[in-house]
Amino acid sequence: MKKFATWNVNSLAVRLPQLLDWLAAHPVDALVLQETKLTDDKFPTMEIGEAGYQVQWFGQKTYNGVALISRERAENVVKNIPGLPDEQARVIAGTVGGVRVIGGYFPNGQAPGSDKFAYKMNWLNGLRRWLADELKAHEQLVLMGDFNIAPDDRDVYDPVAWAGQIHCTAEEREHFQQLLNLGLSDAFRIFDQAPKSWSWWDYRNLAFRKNQGLRIDHILVSEALKRRVTACEIDKQPRRNERPSDHAPVIVTLQD
DNA sequence: ATGGCTCAGGTTCTGAGA
């Protein structure tokens, strides 16, 4: 059995104790992190190493930042999207135990029509082009992270209020569909899931208590990997911590 | 009570997140 997971920790400096607790309770084969918000010199390699994990990291000051934590050492590590010049640290990829693991912190996009939305669209185009190549090179591939896209109205607590808003625009959903069209499957939707399953809840307005959230953190698997998937779940428990991240981890389980 | 946030950087506030 293998487990892969993704978690937007919203500052690894703040969340490191929670990360170490989570890893102890959930011994995954690979975990990708988003929004570490650390420059590379401040990355807590020693603490993660002492927990029994290898780690690759790619950060910047204040914003963004990603990492790939794994039991086995990740090979052929790539940072950001080849062919897409980008000042922001958003992607880390590596091969772990024969599986290509790609972790992404997709741009937020702020609002349709904004410069940040245009950046998001350009980034998604670059990602799709690169992924087409990666899928040719790696039959077993998982793309996971904070996509900042709610693929369907089922993934939104109030689809009417969010219609056309950021994360829910037709353009973003079309990009998500194009990733699926490359031969990827949304692991969460392989299985029957409880309605109102979210991976993110706003810090404001008691959103978690009221279960008002979005499902924007995803695990996409290639055809070869899909055949091995036995479960996919969102772990809400860390959202109940004191000083939680606003995102919950998502975990996929595969048979050997 | 019908409101209600949390980060980093830096400094008593701003920008960003989603």
UniProtKB/TrEMBL annotation:
Names of required cofactors: Mg(2+); Mn(2+)
InterPro entries: AP_endonuc_1, AP_endonuclease_F1_CS, Endo/exonu/phosph_ase_sf, Endo/exonuclease/phosphatase, ExoIII-like
The keyword Magnesium belongs to this UniProt entry's keyword annotation: yes
Single GO term (MF): double-stranded DNA 3'-5' DNA exonuclease activity
This enzyme's EC code(s): 3.1.11.2
Keywords: Hydrolase, Magnesium, Metal-binding
Metal-binding as UniProt keyword: yes
UniProt domain Endonuclease/exonuclease/phosphatase: residue ranges: 5-247
Family annotation (Pfam families): Exo_endo_phos
CDD domains in UniProt: ExoIII-like_AP-endo (cd09086)
UniProt record similarity statement: Belongs to the DNA repair enzymes AP/ExoA family.
Protein's UniProt name: Exodeoxyribonuclease III
Organism ancestry: Bacteria, Pseudomonadati, Pseudomonadota, Betaproteobacteria, Burkholderiales
